[in-house]
Amino acid sequence: xxxxxxxxxxxxxxxxxxxxxxxxxxxxxxxxxxxxxxxxxxxxxxxxxxxxxxxxxxxxxxxxxxxxxxxxxxxxxxxxxxxxxxxxxxxxxxxxxxxxxxxxxxxxxxxxxxxxxxxxxxxxxxxxxxxxxxxxxxxxxxxxxxxxxxxxxxxxxxxxxxxxxxxxxxxxxxxxxxxxxxxxxxxxxxxxxxxxxxxxxxxxxxxxxxxxxxxxxxxxxxx
Length: 223
Known about the structure:
The chain has 223 residues and is mostly helical. It is 64% helix and 0% strand. Helix 2 (32-82) crosses helix 3 (84-90). The longest helix is centred in the N-terminal third of the chain and has 51 residues, at 32-82. The two termini are 31 Å apart.
């Protein structure tokens, strides 16, 4: 992963420097204890930098994996949207036309992409809610949300997907009560944790997904 190379290089340099400190010669016996204390403090500081670099690298790997998984799933959805036979194989929603199934799959795809942006820290909670307010105005997405309500009930209550689901439910309810005030509806930021992008908002996931997964076709669910 090319984006991680600078981080790995800095960690390696810090390790080499730290080892060099340990090997540093002492010029005078009287100064030896003081110099040892100074080296210990400096060594601990450099080790702290190494730990921070490793933590950052782990976060970058996690985000990259989330994006990669999301890409794989959306590629599947794109193929299914183009091919009705594949769409029927992926979706568990019955009694709908091929056209409607494709529309609901695309709504699922858009929801997953917005949630992914929050998961990787690209948008914060307020921006996420703003995107969802706009998406909730769409009739196809509103139908998708209504048809997949049962699939969201199996989500762990404190998972990101469940929390975002409750936020969208609130948006939908307030839109139904006062559609002219659509730009101000929705839950307050404190009702849901801020973007988990450090492997916080974790990526776009769909209803029924375990935390950290990409979107699924409508009607699909995972525990």
